[in-house]
Design goal:
The structure holds two protein chains of two kinds.
Chain A: E1 29-38, H1 45-48, E2 64-74, E3 79-84, H2 90-97, E4 105-110, H3 125-134, E5 136-139, H4 143-146, H5 153-163, H6 169-182, H7 199-211, E6 217-221, H8 229-246, E7 249-254, H9 257-263, E8 266-271, E9 274-280, H10 281-286, H11 291-298
Chain B: H1 19-34, E1 40-41, H2 55-64, E2 70-75, H3 82-95, E3 98-99, E4 108-112, E5 125-129, H4 143-151, H5 156-169, E6 180-182, E7 186-188, H6 198-201, E8 207-212, E9 217-221, E10 227-229, E11 257-261, E12 268-272, H7 275-287
Parallel strand pairs in B: 2-3, 2-4, 4-5, 5-8
Antiparallel strand pairs in B: 1-9, 6-7, 6-10, 8-9, 11-12
Classes of the chains: A alpha/beta, B alpha/beta.
Chain lengths: ~300, ~300
């Protein structure tokens, strides 16, 4: 299978994550110049769009520059936020990194994939599938995207484990129930279809699925959007709890500054497909430099 | 050297298909043999039988049959049912080859949903009629997606299906058409043979060819190839159990049995599904001066 080693999963290792955040020497995820253009694209696309142009649609070829030249470092155990208005390219960014979309240009290096020496955006589909299932987790805004609603909650988690070569029903169920307990899904719902679950519970099953193979990195794409406030609070609480306990690195995409403030240490502000400001979350929210960030923060009630 | 020149109807090319078609099918067969378990598309032709009645298997047989072959055709283990008889007659009338019911004498065997009980040798070829070649169809309706899944050896969704089957019913309920992993690479549908026959594919000495006429696919399990049924460590694959039952005709306890229900008395009888095997056992018992086997009940 193209040089991929299927790593077995040790139940004993489960959740023996890092306690506290160690001082990291090199970033877990290194992204350089990530660009995604929808349409045929032309030489002027990137130059003629962006926050100065006030649009991400190329005036010459009408291609949409969803995101361009995005670079950042994410360290192990760090929580990074990506904030911006609708259409600013936040979701495209994580979906490119999770290989849901192919990227037009740019590089991304994951420390746990070949020692961070190989650009994972250029890997074969087979290797990307391996990375997706073993080294990353993803929680989508809409549970329909991340879950198979016609498979049971346990079956959804089993899918991840089966991909990792776990062919023992008893042990799969053991692991699935542990994950569901951790994400506060009642055990008796394990063999029910997520189709019949509430939105909050679907989201928690999705989080359990994303964590199934103990990935060091999890993407959260607008996880609380569409949930009512009390359920939002519980999901955010769960995420913070899991982060503290497992020492996961997380990339949190949200248009909601409260979520960003609550969860993240470091924040990227995006507009029209570009990063306009990056820095410590407290700094960005307390002393925004870019006019767009100032607008964003001042519109916060 | 045709065995039966008189039976051949004039006006047809040898083995019905034109030479170009036979050549194409042979090339597809070579590719299928080279990539065990991989489904090779081919241009399935119109035949004098309807699609769904064994046209895939028949095209393989027609492309392979030579004047020196001895052909056997079975349907659910039986040589005498209408589908088998008609296919055999078509082969006879367009080629004049010798036909047989004896598994040991046949160089080319076309079958529907069974593998003969007698072990096949390396000089024999078994051709399967396949209704649905895609083992992933039960979890994914899109052909584009299933091809991608095969290319990436991504079978997790089929595994989830089996997992949920166990959760719901405490065992895997797939009866016939049990998915197998061929040569540790491709998951394959072995055609609707019973579980009983699945272990016979593993390291078989003979060449196994699968033809799906309606779905236009050819695939193969070459001689001495690993064929593993999908199973969980704590739920191993099992074949059908006929414990305490034996064939009402020949007394066999080691063959796949059909259950027959007597409409009037309601009595159950079991007989060998492989009729040629059953007849052979009966004959050898007679030859050795033994009484034909006991009938287990007064039915019939």
């Amino acid at each position: 299978m193209g040089g991929i080693e299927l790593s077995g999963l040790n139940i004993a290792d489960t959740f023996s994550g890092l306690q506290g955040n160690p001082v990291p020497d090199e970033p877990l995820l290194r992204v350089r110049g990530l660009t995604r253009i929808y349409g045929r694209g032309c030489a002027e696309c990137v130059v003629r769009t962006g926050p100065e142009a006030g649009s991400n649609i190329c005036p010459i070829c009408a291609s949409i520059v969803a995101c361009a030249g995005v670079s950042f470092d994410l360290y192990a155990g760090e929580m990074m936020g990506v904030v911006g208005e609708s259409g600013s390219g936040k979701s495209t960014l994580v979906q490119c990194l999770y290989f849901d979309h192919t990227s037009s240009a740019g590089e991304a290096y994951l420390k746990s994939y070949r020692g961070g020496a190989v650009n994972m955006l250029g890997s074969s589909a087979q290797e990307q599938r391996h990375i997706r299932h073993h080294l990353m987790g993803m929680v989508y805004q809409n549970p329909h995207q991340g879950l198979r609603l016609d498979c049971t909650a346990g079956g959804n988690i089993a899918e991840k484990l089966l991909t990792a070569g776990f062919f023992h029903v008893g042990r799969i169920r053991e692991r699935a129930s542990e994950l569901l307990r951790r994400t506060e899904v009642p055990m008796e719902r394990m063999d029910h279809l997520p189709r019949h679950f509430s939105g909050g519970m679907q989201q928690r099953v999705q989080i359990a699925k994303a964590l199934a193979n103990n990935p060091p990195l999890v993407f959260l794409d607008e996880v609380t959007t569409g949930l009512d406030v009390s359920v939002q609070a519980r999901v955010l609480d769960l995420i913070r709890h899991l982060h503290r306990e497992l020492g996961l690195a997380m990339l949190v995409v949200s248009h909601n500054l409260d979520v960003i403030r609550l969860l993240t240490d470091y924040t990227l502000v995006m507009k029209s497909g570009r990063v306009v400001e990056a820095g410590l979350t407290d700094q960005i929210l307390g002393d925004p430099q870019h006019p767009y960030t100032q607008l964003l923060v001042s519109s916060l009630l | 050297m045709m065995a039966n020149k008189k039976a051949v109807r004039p006006g047809y090319n040898y083995a019905f298909l034109d030479e170009q078609t036979k050549k194409e099918i042979r090339r597809r067969i070579l590719k299928a043999v080279a990539i065990p378990g991989y489904q090779v598309p081919f241009a399935s032709r119109e035949l004098p039988i309807a699609q769904g009645w064994g046209t895939g298997g028949l095209q393989l047989t027609l492309a392979l049959v030579g004047p020196d072959d001895v052909v056997k055709v079975i349907d659910q283990g039986s040589d005498d049912v209408v589908n088998a008889v008609n296919i055999r007659r078509l082969l006879l009338q367009t080629t004049g080859v010798k036909t047989t019911e004896n598994t040991d004498a046949a160089s080319l065997i076309q079958t529907r949903h069974r593998i003969p009980e007698e072990r096949l040798g390396d000089w024999q070829t078994l051709v399967f009629q396949v209704p649905y070649p895609e083992p992933l169809r039960r979890v994914e309706p899109s052909e584009v997606k299933t091809r991608e899944m095969h290319a990436e050896a991504d079978y997790s969704r089929l595994w989830v299906y089996l997992y949920e089957d166990i959760v719901r019913w405490r065992e895997i309920t797939v009866g016939a058409q049990y998915p197998v992993l061929v040569n540790k690479r491709y998951v394959m549908d072995p055609s609707p043979i019973p579980r009983w026959d699945v272990p016979k594919l593993h390291m078989a000495a003979n060449l196994n060819l699968f033809g799906a006429g309606r779905e236009k696919r050819i695939y193969a399990v070459p001689p001495y190839t690993r064929v593993q049924p999908l199973e969980f460590e704590d739920h191993p694959f099992r074949v059908e159990s006929f414990e305490g039952k034996s064939c009402a005709v020949c007394g066999s306890t080691g063959s796949f049995l059909d259950e027959l229900l007597d409409n009037h008395t309601g009595a159950r009888r079991y007989t060998c599904s492989d009729t040629a095997y059953c007849a052979k056992r009966l004959l050898s018992e007679k030859r050795h001066g033994q009484r034909p086997t006991r009938r287990t009940d007064g039915g019939d």
